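Hi everyone,

Forwarding the result from last night's run.
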Amino acid sequence: MSTALRIVSREEWTRARKDLLAKEKAFTIERDALSAARRDLPLVKVEREYLFEEPAGKRTLLELFEGKRQLIVYHFMFNPSWDEGCKGCSYVSDSFDGAIPHLAARDTSFAAASRAPVAKIEAFKKRMGWGFRWLSSAGSDFNYDYKVSFRPEGGAPKAIEYNYGSRESSMSDLPGLSVFLRDGREVFHSYSTYERGLDLLIGAYNCLDLTPLGRQEAELPQRMAWVRHHDRYEER
């Protein structure tokens, strides 16, 4: 057992737990207020026409709603030149299939989008055992407009706009999530989040945050952070 762990009596533990509970309740109130502020963000009308492609054919952004009022799009990192999707995005995506029926019951559609061609997306999706809707956005500027893909690609680090700020990066694609609302045939952009804003999607992280050892990111090899089944993501 690590010497960093404190061992105390049940009574002392209960007092410490109650102190933490007060902080947790305060955080819950703050989180509810933050969620309300997020819902209260103004909307931007989507003026551009975006085309996506899946095995059944091409689809517009409006069609991705499937008649529902809300649409969540996960920006999955998958450059057209890559042979497989991002490992981090794969870890996040393992939780999508279970959530989709519950989203649908609440008037919300879900899809993932990447710049990779349909054939590569479908092959990787099959390999990973996923059923969620995943389309290619290669035929439009969707990824660029929502700040998850960057020009020019490759080469030395360059200035990019990501997570509402500028930075130097050599990445061609980065992860994110965008939310849209439909009013009749008009579509509005309500929210996008990136980086640590995506933590809420990772069920395993949320569970590990409840444990003494936490996420253990520093202790585990990089390759292990995204593995669930070794036959889906082999060691590279």
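The beta strands are 44-45, 51-54, 57-60, 70-75, 108-114, 134-136, 158-162, 165-169, 176-183, 186-193.

Cheers,
N.
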